[in-house]
Amino acid sequence: MQVASYLPSRNLAMELVRVTEAAAISAARVQGRGNKNEVDQAAVDAMRQVLSQIDIDGIVVIGEGEKDEAPMLFNGEVVGNGSEPKVDVAVDPVDGTRLTAEGRGGALAVIAVAERGSMYSPGSLVYMDKIAVGERAAGKIDINAPVAYNLAAVAKALGKAVSDVTAVVLDRPRNLPYIEQIRAAGARISLIGDGDIQGSLSAAIEETGIDILLGIGGSPEAVTSACAMAALRGEIQCKLWPRDDSERQYAADRGLDLNQVLGTRDLVDSDDTFFAATGVTRGSMLRGVRFSGVHTETHSVVMRSRSGTVRFIETDHRVEWTEGNLLNATSEQSATST
């Protein structure tokens, strides 16, 4: 009997990690200088440079800069070298620009890819109400239910008491009702200043100690996180959150239902998503960039939803450093999969 051979298609995440490594290294070089735009510009320039060499025909659907008027890889920008496959691209050159500018932990360089036409585009509605959990609690949560209900559901799924459940929440005035309800339910809270994507991922990766993400954060970050959630087999639910009457009218004019619950599949309608992130500054999931002479060390995670593969990659870049030039580096990688 002849045994059929199996040749796997490209795992784009293994190529995309070069993009996030470049962005993270460039951003880390201006860490702590107090200038958010300098951080973003450094990361955007590096990301765009390396993206131009990747074998994809990409269109940026989720770009950088619309929400915070930062330097941009703009929505609609064509990226890659024009080769197949045709894909949608979501980028966040630094998820946590303020964290990096202030020298705080938890910043990531992020990119996600899925086939063309699969990513949800929130337009000018840049905020969403969100809830996200890992695989064991997937299917057990309901964004329309009270916070106490969801905390209890997660506790049951994880086999622990509600008092042992840890919720991660963006530390913003708009999330004060969530914080108060979490405290009333007796659960633990981890407040983060920025880093919306890392918050979602932390809820889906058990080693971080985070069990659930709750609260209002960025819409672009929700779509990007969904690409990772598809690989992690976790779940994210969101609802568009308009800030004022003009955004409510924007939604009405475009037929967007503000009561619609957007699940993982609504945010990225694909069976084959790719996600890569590299730590810029040290966080709960990834270490930050470390410089030591001609060696630069990065710590990244890459994911593919079709296979459910998650790899943590430690890279030692040997760089004959010329400021602004990331392309003359050689590297050795070691990866572990879960």
Describe the structure.
The structure is a single chain. 28% of the residues lie in helices and 28% in strands. The protein is α+β, with helices and mostly antiparallel strands and 338 residues long. Helix 1 (12-28) packs antiparallel against helix 2 and helix 6 runs parallel beside helix 7 (219-232). The radius of gyration is 19 Å and the shape is globular. Residues 1-8, 65-71 and 326-332 have low confidence and may be disordered.
Which features characterize this protein?
9-stranded mixed beta sheet; alpha+beta; 338 residues; 5-stranded mixed beta sheet
Describe the secondary structure blueprint for this structure.
Blueprint: H1 12-28, H2 36-51, E1 57-62, E2 78-79, E3 86-95, H3 97-101, E4 108-115, E5 127-133, H4 147-158, E6 166-170, H5 176-185, E7 188-192, H6 196-204, E8 212-218, H7 219-232, E9 235-240, H8 245-253, H9 264-267, E10 274-279, E11 290-292, E12 295-304, E13 309-319, E14 329-337
Parallel strand pairs: 1-3, 6-7, 6-8
Antiparallel strand pairs: 1-2, 3-4, 4-10, 5-8, 5-9, 10-12, 11-12, 12-13, 13-14
Helix pairs in contact: 1-2, 6-7
Order of helices and strands: HHEEEHEEHEHEHEHEHHEEEEE
Number of helices: 9
Instruction: Count the beta strands.
Output: 14
- Mean of residue pLDDT? 90
Please give the alpha-carbon distance between the first and last residues: 34 Å
Low-confidence stretches: 1-8, 65-71, 326-332
> What is the global morphology?
globular
Structural category: alpha+beta
Give the biggest beta sheet.
9 strands, mixed
**How would you classify the quaternary structure?**
single chain
Determine the fraction of residues in helical runs and give it as a percent range.
25-40%
Q: Report the sheet-strand fraction.
A: 25-35%
Radius of gyration: 19 Å
